[in-house]
Design goal:
Blueprint: E1 2-6, E2 10-15, E3 18-23, E4 28-29, E5 32-33, H1 41-55, E6 64-66, E7 78-81, E8 85-86, E9 89-96, H2 99-108, E10 110-111, E11 114-115, E12 125-131, E13 134-135, H3 149-156, H4 158-180, E14 184-196, E15 199-203, E16 212-216, H5 232-241, H6 255-273
Antiparallel strand pairs: 1-2, 2-3, 3-7, 4-5, 6-7, 8-14, 9-12, 9-13, 9-14, 10-11, 14-15, 14-16
Helix pairs in contact: 1-6, 3-4
Length: about 280
């Protein structure tokens, strides 16, 4: 196999006409890879993504060829998949006000061109989920930048932009319904898509603690931040307990913080899938 690309979390290998996508235990926040791995993270992301791919296969096909036909050293954390011609847009759906969306709202009452009503606060549920795409920058290429829907049309064309919006919002809607039944709110999520033989398919990962904000539903109320079940926990730790300026190198994660982060990933996996993490 030939290593084609090493990203923030995943390594991509060529194996004939197929790709082997390997999820590492690396973790990144603010687009910087931290020096401390999170035990089992890559396996959890892979297995949870596979579960979601199966649940939502009627919304959009995915790139998975096999979850087992992979090199033995990558078992559990890798998939054999199709090569996709990636759409260079991060597709993001938001159902609640948080993160960069909250900052944009506080500044201009808009998020990626979506006008929102006055009176919303942190963690507010939006009147309806919104599509808030962004650019897709390479590792080391800077931060992704928000795009309006019209800017997305300019980049990819009207037909594809409409399909990106439809698929992203439907994945969010269906995923949110499933998670809500398990006591979890999906505040927002992002997906990556591409084409294989002219067919639009989802790649990378789906509805994981790396790509989504998961909140404890029982603790949610507008104006307060619920318990995080994702890597926002780590972002908050870096802000509150270090003087890191969000540039490389990132801070070393203490053992207890790494373990607490892992526990959140395990909890999300177990609650959503109903399976015990081995």
């Amino acid at each position: 196999m030939e290593l084609l690309h090493s990203g923030k979390v995943r390594d991509v290998y060529a194996d004939g006409d197929d790709l082997i996508l390997v999820a590492s235990d690396r973790i990144s926040i603010y687009d910087v890879i931290l020096p401390t791995p999170i035990p089992d993270k890559g396996k959890i992301l892979t297995q949870l993504s596979l579960w979601w791919f199966d649940q939502l296969s009627d919304v959009i096909p995915n790139h998975v060829i096999s979850a087992t036909d992979v090199p033995a050293e990558f078992a559990g954390r890798a998939i054999r998949c199709e090569r996709l011609e990636m759409v260079m847009v991060e597709c993001i759906a938001r159902g609640y006000l948080a993160g960069s969306g909250l900052k944009d709202y506080e500044r201009e009452r808009m998020v990626s061109g979506n006008r929102l009503p006055d009176g919303l606060v942190e963690s507010s549920k939006l009147p309806e989920p919104i599509f808030t795409p962004s650019t897709k920058e390479p590792v080391g290429g800077g931060h992704d930048a928000p795009l309006t829907y019209d800017e997305t049309v300019e980049r990819v064309g009207k037909e594809l932009a409409e399909e990106l919006r439809r698929v992203t919002l439907e994945i969010y809607r269906r995923g949110s319904e499933i998670a809500a039944a398990k006591g979890i709110i999906i505040a927002d999520t992002k997906i990556e898509v591409g084409h294989a033989n002219g067919v639009l398919k989802i790649g990378d990962e789906l509805l994981t603690p790396d790509s989504s904000r998961f909140w404890e539903a029982a603790e949610w109320q507008p104006g307060r931040v619920p318990r995080y079940l994702d890597k926002q926990f780590l972002r908050d730790w870096s802000t509150q307990h270090t003087d890191w300026d969000r540039t490389e190198p990132g801070p070393v994660i203490p053992d207890e913080v790494a373990e607490a982060t892992r526990n959140r990933y395990v909890e999300v996996y177990e609650r959503i899938t109903g399976d015990r993490w081995r």
